[in-house]
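Methods, example record. To illustrate the input and output format used throughout this study, we show the complete record for N-acetyl-alpha-D-glucosaminyl L-malate synthase BshA. The sequence lines were provided to the predictor; the line carrying structure tokens was produced by it.
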Amino acid sequence: MSRPLKIGITCYPSLGGSGVVATELGKLLAEKGHEIHFITHSIPFRLGKFHRNIYYHEVEVSDYYVFRYPPYDLSLASKMNQVARLQKLDILHVHYAVPHAICAYLAKQMAGDELKVVTTLHGTDITVLAQDETLKDIIRLGIRKSDAVTAVSQDLIRETRELLDINEPIDLTYNFVDKRVYYPRSCSDLRADFAGPGEKILMHISNFRPVKRTGDVVDIFARVSAKIPAKLLLVGEGPDLPKIQAKIQRLGLSERVHFLGKQDDVAQVISIADLMLLPSEKESFGLVALEAMACGVPTIGSQAGGIPELVVHGITGYLSPIGHTEEMADNAIRLLSDDTLYASFREAGLKRAHQEFCDERVTRQYEDIYYRVLGLP
Ligand code: GMT
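The corresponding predicted structure is encoded as:
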């Protein structure tokens, strides 16, 4: 193994899958002896307590009176350059293409060519933003100027190539879970706060954006709860939440739905669920389905994006075409009504999550990419 590296990590530090992956990766790399410098506008929410080998550099935005819009991107690029020079960083690893890949490119222009840039594409940076003609060229530039590019599913690699006409290599780096955190926990006390004996718990966790199709979550639950005593737990917040609250009231489901808001201890929350619902319109990977799988909770969802690379239909969960909520509900009912089938899905999911998407494997992949771009053995 080559020498430990000095790695700068930039991500969106607030709630969101890309921020979670970036932060968990930083923690794991630090445990392996690398020196990690988070360069973000606030402390990444999953960072938690003090960690050896982890440093945090806050990006402060200049609010000079001539600026109509404070230039966050320029402040970030300058901070990346400062940290890279002062700390002698080997790598800047940026998560989410815009603006982070462009800022890293600018930082590299200032810091010098020895600084290598690795960009990880997470999903909506391509599937939504790269569809926007005003952003397309700049996203393409960020990708082309990176020393290595990774994406979190085969489907995202395919879509990046198609949308942006990228022929350069893109490494596949799936999302992962830390098995010390994500495992089945017994939590009958917590469960009893939400559901009575004999009631099933369905859960949805997201940022309640239109791509998540949270209206479909409610439709699936309405059909399931007409057949099986059940509760729905909604975790997270976002723009579609008021619409969903109104729909739940309209359908007379208020007594059976709990809104938990944003939650930090996702592993604990997931452990009280029987099923995870993920009927997304777009989903490059679906980290929440992996977290659920690793806690022994099968997913009922759509076939969008990279979800089929994670959830094996008929083995660890059920997947249907986007918007087919009746089929999704019928699959949920089938699984919740058959204890033997449910146990086999749970076991298969646990095995798959911990074998195929384990933290050691993916961390090692990222390290290999860093050493490759640095030309180190
Ligand atoms: O799910 C979101 O909308 C948040 C978004 C993000 O960038 O934080 O998540 C994306 O990245 C995750 C981590 O790689 C993936 O697991 C999610 O599937 C992906 N979301 C979408 O593609 C919609």
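Annotations derived from this record:
DSSP finds 15 helices and 13 strands in the chain.
The domain at 6-176+358-374 is CATH 3.40.50.2000 (Rossmann fold).
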